[in-house]
Each structure stands twice: as C-alpha cells, then as structure tokens.
Amino acid sequence: MQMRTRFAPSPTGPLHLGHAYSALLAHDMARSAGGTFLLRIEDIDQSRARPEWEAQIYDDLTWLGLTWPTPVLRQSDRLPLYRAALKHLWARGLLYPCTCNRRDIAAAASAPQEGAPLHGPDGIVYPGTCRHIPDSTQPLPDTALRLNVVRALNVLQHRPMARPLRFTETGTRAGTHTIDPTDFLSQVGDIVLARRDMGTSYHLSVVLDDAAQHITHVTRGEDLFEATQIHVLLQQLLHLPTPIYHHHGLIRDAQGKRLAKRDDARAIAKYRAEGATPHDIRRMVNLA
Ligand code: GLU
C-alpha cells in the first residue's frame, strides 16, 4: 500500500518551529517512500479558529517547500459526517448525554471516597455521574455525549471477529502497544465524543478523518501518544482500519518547555520576516 501521511494543524495561532518539524517530517517520510503527504485543517473549535490563521498555514507550508493534494480537507465541512457517526453509536446504546461541567467533574472526582482525581489523556477520568441516565433520554442541545466505555469494550469483546486492541508505533516508543481494557476503564474512562459547544470532539473527528483520507502513517507529537488508545478503540467501534503511528519528540524552548501557539517568538512567520530561509528552518529542527 502506498504510504499516506498527514499534517493536521488547528488554525488557532501561528505555526511555530514544532509545527514545522511535524509537517516536514510527515512530508519527508511520504516523499522518501514515494507516497503522498496530505494536509487537514482541524477547525472544529469555531470559537478559536480564524481564517487568517488558516491562510497563514498555507502560506508558511508553501514557503517551506511542501505540496499537498487539493482540495484540503477541513473539519468544519464535515460536521454532518461526525453527526452520522454519533447517531450510529447512539443507536447502538454506546453513548449517553452528560450535563457535567468541568467544576462538577473535578468535585465528583475528588470526593473523599474517590481519593485524588486521576488524569488520563482526556483530562480528569470521568467519575461516571451521568452514566446512569436512562437509555431513552434524548440528548439535549446543550449536553455533551460520552462513550460508555464498559459497553464499548463489551461489544468489541463479543464480536465474532474480535481484533486485539493494539497499534504499531514506529516513533519515539517504537513497538507494538496492546491496550488493556481494564486499564482503559480506570485510566481513560468515558471520554466525550461530542462536546456541547462543537457537536463533535477531537478524538471522533481525527479517527474519521484519518480513515477518510486513507492515512497509513499518523505522524504527530508524542504529547498525543496516550490519546492513541482512544483512537484505536474508536476505529474498532466504527469498523475503521488502524494506521501505523509515528509519534515524534517535541521541539522545546531554551527552558525545556514545549512550544505553544502563543510562542510567537518561535513562529515561522517571524523567522521568515527576519530573513531565514526554508533550509535554515530545516536546520533548526534537525531535518536538513
Ligand atoms: N490538530 C492537532 C494539533 O494541532 C493535531 C492532531 C493530530 O495530529 O492528531 O495539535
């Protein structure tokens, strides 16, 4: 199968050196294998996404020498597809509406009998407050939808052609990673698949889009390594293939902190304005 990689930025700020590294790595991997590099705009958070940041993304990546097939897949164009997947999961009894806000969750998770709240790849492990809402309850417009992980694992386990929950990693933690269902329950919990403000979530959208774009190798920062178990679970529930994952190290600042969108000092645009060449950027991220 021809290799297909992707870079999936959110247009919520300027691309910085960390993004340049991620994009160049995905591009170089595909190019050296005779494959295809794709771009995807992850703009489901409409309260933070801005057209000017999206325009800057195209401009910076083109300047870096990257090319990709068009039209570019934009998540904001795909909301009906995310809704259809949620409907399918809902019909199978795998979702429930949740009215908790962050404060409710933090309070319930740190109730005296619970001990210290446990943090998973999706924030505090949800203590299950709304899990027992009767199945017939229709989600209201301002509720989130959570995955009932016990039921989801049960469905997968009892499938005639049950596949092990596992993925192959070729990046910083290379090897085969098998997901233990008991650990998933206690360390990840009932994740939100549709946020009340978005009608979808990063996890659901990323899984559907990687499949829609036929991505064979997901290259991204190692801060998303722990989220991969969520993605593998969703792939199996939605009958989608699991790609190979390649999590790369993060570019850090002089204090060892990972770069954030607000680190304008490391923005590609700033280096460009100061006269840096694309080759200089490649040298800075060790991909020259
Ligand atoms: N949109 C995510 C970000 O900008 C990347 C998600 C992914 O690569 O899976 O951090």
UniProtKB/TrEMBL annotation:
Keyword Aminoacyl-tRNA synthetase recorded: yes
Pfam families: tRNA-synt_1c
Single Gene Ontology MF annotation: ATP binding
Cross-referenced InterPro entries: aa-tRNA-synth_I_CS, Glu/Gln-tRNA-synth, Glu/Gln-tRNA-synth_Ib_cat-dom, GluQ/Sye, Rossmann-like_a/b/a_fold
Keywords: Aminoacyl-tRNA synthetase, ATP-binding, Ligase, Metal-binding, Nucleotide-binding, Protein biosynthesis, Zinc
EC annotation from Swiss-Prot or TrEMBL: 6.1.1.-
Domain Glutamyl/glutaminyl-tRNA synthetase class Ib catalytic, residue spans: 3-285
Biological processes, Gene Ontology terms: glutamyl-tRNA aminoacylation
UniProt keyword Manganese present: no
Recorded GO CC terms: cytosol
PANTHER family assigned to the protein according to its UniProt record, in alphabetical order: GLUTAMATE--TRNA LIGASE (PTHR43311), GLUTAMYL-Q TRNA(ASP) SYNTHETASE (PTHR43311:SF1)
Family: Belongs to the class-I aminoacyl-tRNA synthetase family.
The protein's name: tRNA glutamyl-Q(34) synthetase GluQRS
Organism: Thalassobius vesicularis
